[in-house]
């Protein structure tokens, strides 16, 4: 059986376990791009939860839809306050597409609703393209089952087999399923060895194990059920490969016990006692589920999150363009403020009966200044990636070719992400801004074609030029990031003099200046061997250090995207 077929069978089992008691498991985190594979999974979900109240959410849904609000038309028509029911007020299944785009506020509201045990469950559809794009932790922690079908082929994804009669029987059997006394401690130890810090995870795994036992027609959880729970709940949450526990110090040998007659009862043995499930068996099952590139994925996510000020594309702050609408706020008319008419009427509606009696004018809508609501928009900042390229030395031509290709690859998708790209080259006795922040691919290719190379390594001048360019970009509302590509040590100081000691000191000062201004970035070592001192320079900048020997344009582009995109 191929890996894809095993993954799909696991998804089928996960769906069956979830269908038994969705509210107890919280929900499913499904990581998969929009396509026929996800469509087939959702068809199986519809069949498994048929009869339940299913509602779809939007990642930008407002509190009015979640918790209910004033029904403006009914209130004005009847003269009495009439409210609508919110989506979170009724039990059922919530489906959240584009869950990786959900704001922390929405995640907190949904997490609170799941914790309140209102009979709600959630299927979060994560469409993220990379490991750095993930749903909020508050949601992921409350969804018991984590599935990743991003690499699932359609040929290995036939229609899911959902036996509704078996689900009915398993649902009847579920309350009678018992758990061995050692099961909770075994699951907790496996979670600890996998680096799973959530206290919810072992309890969620126990709930999945009980569901697996009920689906098998059993009334007691056994080893295969615990392995299923580890595969669906604990292994996807792993943050480290499990290591063997430290060996305990050898204890002194006990004195030999006196001989006992053969017919004496053996109190230490009990044939009827069930031996505890060995933790190592469960850990081996978890190891088999861990992806081979687990550490690389975790490191990529940490690089993006740990970069100072790493707001990435579209930072939510005062920027250079208007973003999505936000809930209206109370305010006053005038200036550039735009009145939200519907929100204003909603605020005024509950007071109409009182105001009509007070004024004696029953055929008017009475609006006061306190009712005024002002529109708000989230301001966005376009991202500006500033490449600082070492154009010195004999290997400059190859290094510049890699950078040119990486810039063109990044610009190819700049229009959808509103990215800008800039280029600073340092060589000889100074640095030069060859390309100011731009989204023009034609202009970029023209400038890159004439990029020179050779000479000394004025690293400090390159960082200073990048800092000045970043400050200029910030003043225009952009969000700058700095990507330094070099394979050599600084040997020319800020004055243009060949002085290796002073050049190294100047480079350190400029690196710390970038860090002090909260500038996210990345240091890429393009040398055939790691260059001594570049890791320390990255530490001074407060950014990740990444050695990429023989890196091509695609590798450089992928590294920059991974490190500078938002977490």
Explain the layout of strands and helices.
Layout: H1 3-20, H2 22-25, E1 27-31, H3 36-48, E2 54-56, H4 63-67, H5 72-78, E3 92-96, H6 104-115, E4 120-126, H7 137-140, E5 145-148, H8 164-173, H9 183-193, H10 200-215, H11 223-234, H12 279-289, H13 294-306, E6 315-330, H14 341-348, H15 352-359, E7 373-381, E8 383-390, H16 396-412, H17 414-417, E9 419-427, E10 430-438, H18 441-449, H19 459-475, E11 479-486, H20 500-516, E12 521-525, H21 534-541, E13 545-547, H22 553-564
Parallel strand pairs: 1-4, 1-5, 2-3, 3-4, 8-9, 8-11, 11-12, 12-13
Antiparallel strand pairs: 6-7, 9-10
Helix pairs in contact: 1-3, 1-10, 9-10, 9-12, 10-11, 11-12, 16-18, 16-22, 19-20, 20-21
Task: Provide an overview of this structure.
It is a single chain. By secondary structure, this protein is of the alpha/beta class. Helix content is 42%, strand content 16%. It has helices at residues 3-20, 22-25, 36-48, 63-67, 72-78, 104-115, 137-140, 164-173, 183-193, 200-215, 223-234, 279-289, 294-306, 341-348, 352-359, 396-412, 414-417, 441-449, 459-475, 500-516, 534-541, 553-564, and strands at 27-31, 54-56, 92-96, 120-126, 145-148, 315-330, 373-381, 383-390, 419-427, 430-438, 479-486, 521-525, 545-547. The strands form three sheets. A six-stranded mixed beta sheet has the order 10-9-8-11-12-13, with helices on both faces. Strand 3, helix 6 and strand 4 form a beta-alpha-beta unit. The longest helix has 18 residues, at 3-20. The radius of gyration is 30 Å and the shape is flat. The two termini are 35 Å apart. Mean pLDDT is 78; it is low at 247-252, 263-277 and 295-319.
